[in-house]
Amino acid sequence: ALLLSLRRFNHHVSAQKQPTGLNAIVHQTRDASSAATNPSASSLVGKTIAVKDNIVTASQPTTAASKVLSGFTSPFDATVVKLLQDAGASIGSKASLDEFGMGSHSQTAFNSPVVSPFSRNGEPLSPGGSSGGSAVAVATGEAWAALGTDTGGSVRLPAAYCGVVGFKPSYGLLSRWGVIQYANSLDTVGVLAGNVVDAAKLFGVLNVYDKNDPTSVSDAVRQRLTGHGGSKRKGLRIGVPDEYNIEELTAPVRRAWKGTLSRLQKAGHTILPVSLPATRQALSAYYVLAPAEASSNLAKYDGIRYGNRTSGPDALPKEDLPLYAQTRGEGFGDEVRRRILLGAYALSSEAIDNYFIQAQKVRRLVQQDFDRVFAAQNPLLDSAEGHANDVVDFLITPTAPRLPPTLAELKRQTTVEGYMLDVFTVPASLAGLPALSVPVPLPEKARKDMDADDVQSVGMQVIGQYGSDEGVLELGRTLE
Ligand code: GLN
To answer: Is 104 a pocket residue for ligand 1 (Cβ < 6 Å)?
Structure first.
């Protein structure tokens, strides 16, 4: 049914609005076809894949949608790009994003904000972010699939908002070599595709050890992960976290969640309520940790080594500001500056104990919550932590508490209201767990009074124990 509605949708988009007006793609190469160097892995021959523009490519510029990197071209390809090319894929286009991946609506891109192909009463919708360009490229059929990055939800949220599949694998499985850092301990390369089978295929090509990435999981551990966390299709225990049943959940999302759970129950799975008490603090902890890491990672953009330097004679002090300060002042947008300031404050000697250290403790509690409810042991831990009474194989939650807002509604939203949208995606990021967003059709009742141009699906999230990526994808397939 989803494939059908996607097909209908693709047709609709091309008839109504040319994808070019949506600003999904920032650079495009005409002939990007690449010869498969490894015939045994030539499974992606003829497939066009869009790459989020914070992942470096030698044949096209990489800007992370920031003025500070305008004019920058990497001398090498990111490992994930190289793997796709070796498998025969053509990397034709670089997809837009929120500057450095900071945002949830892809509106902070330096060049131009990304627009969803969907609309409500004539008002364009948010494509979600920060991998909004990647999601729109897949939704409109401009690309067969796309790479994104997910630090706190940036693959899953735009996938949910654009009606496509978005998968964030376990932290450390996909190489970050050549991925421009936002918050290293959370940054994860993810994939977006029209269906779960295609997302799984892409994941399979990319899921290899990389010696260039110090956080890449070793081959020995990868072997232990095979079949980890359960991957059978029948008789699974599915957990529903109490703490995700929040007031902000809107009616259509709640209905879609209930509908999905009852379908799973009918298919022979058992639905169990579980409690993840640290969820309530997870979002606040994320918005301390991610900016703290960002403030450190972004210190290198000083106009000396990369990208765009302030104009005018080199190092001529303007208003007594040194070259690097002028470059940074001109090069970073408002949201990036806000994060750098927040992060630098959280790490300062007066605040570190109350903010950064506390947030690290919350992160550990969030990880322990998940370890307590999952039947499978966390393969990264030496000994099993205490288990809850009812243990589960996977968790099912909505990806976001509401359907995508219109771009006009966004303008009225405060910064903190914007951060709220990540409430369901951030916990799995803090714990490094695999999480998949699958579009499920909107329940009939919700669709009745809806605009025909509106997104007709709701993103459902499947979360699994660390390393249970295959099982998450397999269960996700049954939700389509
Ligand atoms: N919206 C979140 C943020 O702004 C997540 C971003 C991401 O995952 N890159 O930090």
So the answer is: yes
Which residues does residue 39 pair with via DSSP β-bridges, in sequence order? none
- Active-site residue, from 90, 154, 429, 437: 154
Of 49, 53, 56, which Cα lies nearest the Cα of 26? Answer: 53
Give, using CA atoms, the residue closest to atom 10 of ligand 1.
Answer: 102
Q: Is any ligand 1 atom within 6 A of the Cβ of residue 182?
A: yes
Q: Which of 52, 67, 82, 94 is catalytic?
A: 52
Report which secondary-structure segment, H or E, holds 165.
strand 165-168
The tens-digit pLDDT sequence of the chain (480 residues) is: 333 343 333 333 333 334 568 999 998 876 555 555 555 545 899 999 999 999 999 999 999 999 999 989 999 999 999 999 999 999 989 999 999 999 999 999 987 899 999 999 999 999 999 999 999 999 999 999 999 999 999 999 999 999 999 999 999 999 999 999 999 999 999 999 999 999 999 999 999 999 999 999 999 999 988 877 666 667 999 999 999 999 999 999 999 999 999 999 999 999 999 999 999 899 999 999 999 999 999 999 988 887 788 776 555 556 667 788 888 989 999 999 999 999 999 999 999 999 999 999 999 999 999 999 999 999 988 766 666 667 999 999 999 999 999 999 999 999 888 898 899 999 999 999 999 999 999 988 878 878 889 999 999 999 999 999 999 999 999 999
Q: Which domain holds residue 378?
A: 1-480
**Selection from 230, 262, 271, 192 nearest residue 479 by Cα:** 262
Active site residue 52: yes
Question: Encoding tokens for residue 226?
Answer: 């095979």
Spell out the SS3 assignment of 107-152: CCCCCCCCCCCCEECCEEECCCCCCHHHHHHHHCCCCCEEEEEECC
Q: Could you tell me if 131 and 55 are in contact, meaning their C-beta atoms sit under 8 angstroms apart?
A: no
HSE on the CB side for 316, CA within 13 Å?
A: 5
**Residue 312 per-residue DSSP state:** S
Nearest atom in ligand 1 to 418's CA? 1
Report the domain count for the chain: 1
ipTM of the complex: 0.98
Residue 39: Cβ within 10 Å count: 8
C-alpha distance from residue 275 to each of 148, 236, 239 (Å):
30, 18, 9
The domain that contains 257 carries what CATH number?
3.90.1300.10
